[in-house]
User: Fold this.
Amino acid sequence: MRAVLVALLVFYFVAFGLGSYVLLARLPSLYGLLRDLELILFVFALGLLFYMRRKEPGKYEPERHHWALLAYVAVLLLNCLRPEPIAQEVLLGALQLSLVPFVAYGLGTILVRLPGGSRSLLWALLLATTLMAIPALVENGLGLVSMALWVDSRFEDTMTRATGFLANPIILAAVYQMSLVWALGLLIVVKERSKAFWGLLCWALLLLLVLYISYTRAGWLAFWVSTFLFWYFHEPRKKIIAIFAFLLLFIILLAPTGRVRLATMAEMRHRSNATRIDRWIRCAQFIYRRPLIGHGLGRTCGVAPNQNRVKGSFFAHNYLLQLWVELGLIGLIPFILFWYYFIRHVLKRGRGTLRLAGLSALAGFFAHSMVIGHIEYPPVAMMVALTMALLDGQLPDEEDEGEGFTHSPLLQAAPAVLMMVLLTALQVRVGLYQHGLQKVYELRKAGKVEEARKGLSKLLQWDKRCLEEEHKLAQQWQKQL
Assistant:
């Protein structure tokens, strides 16, 4: 029973969590089913945990971070009673997305207490991020402008930025910079020059490449923050950590596109920087009006798309400012206290290599969230929750020799990995179809109408399952030519 529960929870974290955007966009019925089963899974896991506690006596006392989290959740729930008008589906969507990382954290703490749980989760993360890299690399290799206006008008369409599985390059960078820090931790733990070492080194280099082709400057900075802290606090200090930090900088400076992206970081008139400054000024104005109780969850600013559809709402580009605007100090303070007490709790358990890697990955996430509030994006929420859960349990490098090997991590991770194989193939197919549309768009723009017609004819012969929107667009273009 425990092995089955580990497999279910790993599937939830990896296939449903990291693959959520592919599922939602391409397999909505399956996504809806998994979303509905989330609460059932949580109740089932909690019930089994209580049953095991009865068979394994031991006193459980809530920690301070649990009380702080309870207070934060209470503020979120009380926001549902506020008198300010808001559509119920918007409010419930905002509430659900705000709770995702903490529901996943609760499930994760159960997972890492089961035999082989933390080891299975790390193996699944290794395999999943390797698979997730394939669509991103295919996009980059094809020069697919996945943010072109016909795909998504919210983002810049001036260059190719890999999105892969994760809807936009910001999310891709957030997930990959955190997983890369975990990879460096595992790289230090294994025996040098062993087969595992060379395999993990290849994995880490792959993650670094995907982080680079996201061309997300804040993601690069987040990784540098993570690696500096990891290198500084790890005893003895390991050169491999610094090497990866400098390798990313070297690649950026070597490539013209990387240099351009890095140079614009200091240009206050650049679109990204100017937008952020404008949003932060607006946040300050909203905070000044209601500093204590805020303007209400989902009513003013936020990250989630369903919140952004609210009239007059805006994207805060800073998660703490977003919380202050929406929930006021009564919501912001418990949120900050939760993280303060959680980190204290984790540090009390020791400062082993993987524990420092996880804390450093969280530090990079915190740095990233100061310029792009993104914990509510499900893949990022899952990555943060996964990291929190691992830190809250016993990590593989802290286990007694032989412990955790009684349950095969690959066997328990198999359902999640198999689903990720399916989603990878699906996403690559989507990328190839979008590349075909992009070529047709360029031909039509260049006046090569006959070639554009031939291209559309080939695209319309594809099976349109999981490509409904793109297929519909191809039909519209065919009528216009």
Remarks:
- The chain has a mean pLDDT of 86.
- Residues 409-445 form the longest helix (37 residues).
